[in-house]
Amino acid sequence: MVERVVFFVSDQTGVTAETLGHSLITQFAGQNFRQTTLPFIDTEDKAREAVRVIDATAANGAPHPIVFSTIVQPNLRKIVKESVGLHLDIFDAFLESLADELGAAPEYLSGRAHGVSDIDAYMKRIEATNFALANDDGGVSRNYDVADVILVGVSRSGKTPTCLYLALQYGVYAANYPLTEDELETGTLPDFLLEHKHKLFGLTIEPERLRDIRRERRPHGHYSTTQQIRFELRESEKIFRRYGIPNVNTTSFSIEEIASRILDSTGVERRVRP
Amino acid sequence: MVERVVFFVSDQTGVTAETLGHSLITQFAGQNFRQTTLPFIDTEDKAREAVRVIDATAANGAPHPIVFSTIVQPNLRKIVKESVGLHLDIFDAFLESLADELGAAPEYLSGRAHGVSDIDAYMKRIEATNFALANDDGGVSRNYDVADVILVGVSRSGKTPTCLYLALQYGVYAANYPLTEDELETGTLPDFLLEHKHKLFGLTIEPERLRDIRRERRPHGHYSTTQQIRFELRESEKIFRRYGIPNVNTTSFSIEEIASRILDSTGVERRVRP
Fold first, then answer.
1. B20: closest CA among A181, A22, A207?
2. Which of A206, A208, B57, B141 is deepest in the core (most CB within 10 A)?
3. Angle, nearest 10°, between helix axes A15-25 and B15-25?
4. Residue A54 — pLDDT band, cuts 50, 70, 90?
5. Do B127 and B88 share a structural domain?
6. What is the mean pLDDT of residues A65-94?
7. In Å, what is the CA distance from A219 to each residue of A204, A215, A224?
8. What span, in angstroms and rounded, lies between the C-alpha atoms of A39 and A65?
9. One domain, residues B63 and B155
10. Do A19 and B113 touch (CB under 8 A)?
11. Which of A98, A106, A255 lies nearest to residue B86, judging by beta carbons?
């Protein structure tokens, strides 16, 4: 299958162009894409260099590249669009109709979305990340009073990455507590968790998938046996039912999906937005 | 200032719609936006319910809402577009020209971007997150052989959130090592770091900003004094110069920007893409 080069070109980090482009190209599963990000294209010289890089990929009869871009300045966008390839730029597509609807002129300032403009949001994300780390894995802090949500589930059900993602992406204060033999054998949760029962959210997962994940970490031993895993999951799900804890099966979900489902289900407010 | 409601509507998590919309609305700084995400709009019933929610915000003469959406299924998109407001949808805007360029029909499958389709990418991000946690703050593991990059800098210069972001977003293996009295007073780095000198990347920050960040954590004491902070930053920058370690001043950058600048400067490959 012939390779199709995809560029994500941005006057800033390229995160928006990457996210946008990824949503679109994943609709074409049969294609062979090679992805390249060209960030910080914020001068005319850099824009011309980007054009050279893009044009080079189409030499010798290779198919035209796809260029997803987020370039605020019209003069830089114009230069980048001189390269070969299909150009899809969100400011080109949407900025004018948005300005019309708002009855306001855009500021054409690059770096607004992920930049210096919001130090307050930066601090909130950092503080939320520190919170997640201090309250990871039942951690020493147990500042459950200020937690927005407390994830519970067996080891490797996805609690830690989900908490970190909620913190970094949304500034949400997410703690997590692992269900271990103590809870699983008695079928009860400790009082310091039950005091915050309305903040609890459970993660569960299919046994086969959890076995794969655990074996990646510890190939041998009790921890990764099918029998142990089935026991833990069955008992953890009983606990969710017993206390009426909302929960999600993470088996086929990405970290983004698990996080979105938690926010959607609990109604926890995003403190910042990406 | 009259409030303008902004919706991010998606058949999946809403992350793409949020990212896209945020890039656009931040170009209009003077406006008063209230942002709401409606994720998992993946049936006709849910689409009709979304229309009711959107229409309700425009009752009583309130200005029309702005609706950023990423809805793959044309029938669901059609329903959502029946609501009042300005509708900006990336599939509407870009899918057809992309299909033309690729000479292929889109699959119209929702959930491709952040979903079940890529368990391998999920595992890579989890493993990278585990690596970042095990190698945080000079951590016990010091698996620097498999690190893609090792961030160095003084306490609270932004190392930990940047490593976690690189892991979660891109599956990059990022370790970090804090420069403490040992290194700062001797001006030398330990051998176990110098063995991987080509992987080192420095973070620095303005003294005033670092003071604010440290005082948030510990309002009093040596750690947060201007004198101590100036000493640490001056000596850490000397170390960067002495060993030729590329570095970035994080003062006015978001986590996304710091991460992008590191990838751009080091040439470290993204193992997965958002």
1. A22
2. B57
3. 140
4. very high
5. no
6. 96
7. 21, 4, 7
8. 17
9. no
10. yes
11. A98
User: Of the residues A102, A137, A153, which one is the last residue of a structural domain?
Assistant: A102
Q: Rounded CA gap, A90 and A95, in Å?
A: 7
Say if residue B116's pLDDT is above 50. Answer: no
**Residue A39 located in a structural domain:** yes
**Cβ contacts of A151 within 8 Å, gap of 6 or more:** A159, A162, A163, A174, A175, A176, A177, A201, A202, A203, A262
Does residue B160 sit in the same domain as residue B64? no
| Domain presence at residue B241 | yes
A66/A133 same-domain check: no
Taking residue A262's Cβ as centre, other Cβ atoms within 10 Å add up to 24
Cβ atoms of B171 and B121 within 8 Å: the answer is yes
For residues B89 and B131, membership in a common domain is answered with no
Which residues on chain B are in Cβ contact (under 8 Å) with A64?
Answer: 101
Is residue A18 domain-resident?
A: yes
Q: How many domains does chain A have?
A: 2
**Rounded to whole angstroms, how far apart are CA atoms B112 and A23?**
7
Chain B neighbors of A257, CB-CB under 8 A: 12-13, 111, 114-115
pLDDT at B61 over 90: no
Sheet of B174-178, strand order: B174-178, B149-153, B200-204, B247-249
- Retrieve residue B218's tokens: 């510990």
Question: Sorting pLDDT into bands at 50, 70 and 90, what band is B108?
Answer: confident
Residue B224 is part of a domain; what is its CATH number?
A: 3.40.50
Q: What is the C-alpha to C-alpha distance for residues A12 and A70, in angstroms, rounded to an integer?
A: 8
Helices B255-266 and B159-170: crossing angle, nearest 10°?
70
ipTM of the complex: 0.87
Q: Do A27 and B133 touch (CB under 8 A)?
A: no
Both A77 and A139 in one domain: the answer is no
DSSP for A84-136, please give it: SSEEEEHHHHHHHHHHHHHTS-----TT-TTSTT-HHHHHHHHHHHHHHHHTG
Q: What is d(CA B89, CA A20) in angstroms, rounded to the nearest whole number?
A: 11
What tokens does A233 get?
């999951």
Q: What is the average pLDDT score of chain A?
A: 92
Q: Which of A104, A133, A263 sits opposite B28 (nearest CB)?
A: A104
Helical packing angle, B207-217 and A119-134, nearest 10°: 40
How many beta carbons lie within 10 A of that of residue B194, not counting itself?
A: 11
In a domain, A110, yes or no: no
The distance of A149 to chain B (nearest Cα, Å) reads 18
User: pLDDT tens digits, residue range B163-178?
Assistant: 999 999 999 999 999 9
Written as one letter, the residue type at A181 is E
